[in-house]
Write a structure and sequence with these properties.
Elements lengths: L31 H28 L4 H19 L40 H11 L3 E2 L2 E2 L3 H22 L6 H23 L4 H6 L3 H28 L3 H33 L3 H34 L1 H4 L7 H15 L4 H12 L22 H16 L5 H8 L10 H15 L8 H11 L7 H13 L5
Antiparallel strand pairs: 1-2
């Protein structure tokens, strides 16, 4: 053993989430720093919401018809965007089929989701909220709703949109609502006082530079929202902040661009055509959202197919029950701990699911599915056969490369292959046959093998993930 602190790894009994002892770490409560970050977002949002509601009730509602129309638009966008399947249909399929925690990472399946479009599950509601924050005129007449009424309408519509979600037994998305209040408040503070006071001047208020000003303001607003989303995800999961922020910024090029463009168009069109512009210019974004959902459904089916293929080794008796899903979940957590981006994490997930597919070529199963006792030549043969099978599934070529190189020295492997190799060895060593102290002994054996078989950085990242327990994946 090295002098590094050992993770607080608990032991699950036979009735644990995967039905095997020693595979799942004991969840650790969120760290104090994470709670401070969450409070630093929720408290200002709550203060801004209370001030806006109080001020609006005191001053009255300006142009109630317009406020009602935008409120209905935002509420409908929230309901449509977050209705249907959990997380608006953007849940990852791997490990969720049985609704159980994802094995060794100890995280619930609900936390194991990330797909195209999930960053903003209610794009129509977001576009409507931003459009109302940037609304200076309606039908040629100036509006005077100001910052308090903007936040109050968005808050009320957001709360209404949460009612169906709560009625279906899901908890309220407080992080999402806090972000929405703060970002809309930021946009309104930057636009409403300047527009209402005429400080923008004739050129910016109604001239050709006005759309450019709105686009720049929305770009800054979405950047702030990405920072808030990454900070909250860091506080909730313990994942590194840098990769999370990078993924949020990458998402801005997709659905984020459509949200910003729709918000600007609705604001400008309402200023000229009035409220008739709302249904007309919301339709393209609604169709875009439907297209994203269909694409996400295809991805979900694709993952389910891969997960089913990975179970073939379990059904045939070559690997223990749930081994592929545990390795996939924990590999993804370790990959995120090491700073991999979402595309690399997807490749890592696929490879971890199918890393043992080559064992189907064996005449007799290896005890407990562990190939370490086999000769180097046999391990390489199994890896190459597994890669050949993977290439027939249509997954990216990088997945097959990871599977094929599992028998190579770790210094010659890409980092994704090193992660799968180390996590696979941990799951083999910490199985039911390892006894009550299996997880700790497994980590000790991995650390002792860092000179030849496992990269030290990957082993320590695995230890950190296990130490965080339920916050790992």
């Amino acid at each position: 053993m090295t002098g590094a602190p050992q993770p607080d790894v608990g032991v699950s009994g036979p009735d644990g989430p995967e039905g095997r002892g020693g595979a799942s770490p004991r969840p650790v409560p969120p760290a104090g720093r994470g709670g401070i970050v969450v409070a630093a977002v929720h408290v200002p949002a709550a203060v801004l919401a209370c001030w806006s509601l109080g001020r609006t009730l005191w001053d009255g509602v300006d142009r109630p018809g317009i406020a009602l129309a935008f409120g209905v638009l935002i509420a409908v966008g929230e309901v449509v965007g977050r209705g249907g399947a959990p997380a608006a249909g953007y849940r990852r399929a791997v490990g969720e089929r049985e609704g159980a925690p994802l094995g060794a990472a100890g995280a619930p399946a609900a936390g194991y989701r990330r797909a195209v479009g999930e960053r903003e599950g209610a794009p129509l509601g977001a576009a409507g909220a931003l459009a109302y924050a940037l609304l200076g005129e309606a039908g040629g007449r100036p509006t005077g709703h100001g910052v308090p009424q903007t936040v109050a309408v968005v808050l009320a519509a957001g709360l209404i949109g949460l009612v169906p979600q709560i009625a279906r037994g899901r908890g309220p998305a407080l992080d999402h609502l806090a972000r929405r209040v703060l970002t809309v408040g930021f946009a309104a503070v930057c636009f409403q006082p300047l527009h209402g006071g005429g400080s923008l001047g004739a050129g910016m208020a109604s001239g050709p530079t006005h759309p450019l000003f709105l686009v720049a303001l929305l770009a800054l607003t979405t950047l702030c929202d990405a920072v808030l989303a990454a900070a909250l995800a860091r506080a909730r999961t313990g994942w590194p902040f840098g990769p999370l922020l990078r993924d949020e910024l990458r998402a801005l090029l997709g659905i984020g661009t459509a949200i910003c463009a729709t918000g600007v168009v609705i604001s400008l069109a309402t200023a000229v055509a009035g409220l008739w512009a709302l249904p007309v210019f919301c339709l393209p974004l609604l169709l875009t959202q439907c297209a994203f959902r269909r694409f996400a459904a295809v991805r979900t089916t694709y993952r389910q197919t891969i997960a089913s293929l990975a179970r073939s080794t379990e059904i045939a008796g070559y690997t223990p029950h749930g081994h592929a899903r545990r390795v996939a979940a924990l590999s993804r957590a370790v990959g995120r701990e090491l700073g991999l981006n979402e595309p690399d994490l997807d490749v890592l997930e696929y490879a971890a699911l199918m890393h043992d597919i080559g064992q189907l070529s064996l005449v007799d199963p290896v005890p407990h599915g562990a190939t370490a006792p086999l000769s180097s030549a046999e391990q390489r043969r199994i890896a190459l056969l597994g890669g050949a099978v993977v290439r027939q599934t249509g997954v990216p070529a990088e997945v097959a490369v990871i599977v094929e190189r599992q028998a190579d020295p770790y210094r010659d492997q890409p980092v994704t292959a090193r992660i799968v190799r180390t996590v696979n060895a941990y799951d083999d060593l910490s199985g039911t046959a390892a006894g009550p102290g299996g997880p700790l002994r497994a980590l000790e054996r991995l650390r002792l093998a860092t000179a030849r078989d496992h990269e030290p950085g990957v082993v320590e990242a695995l230890a950190r993930v296990l130490a965080r327990g339920g916050r790992a994946a």
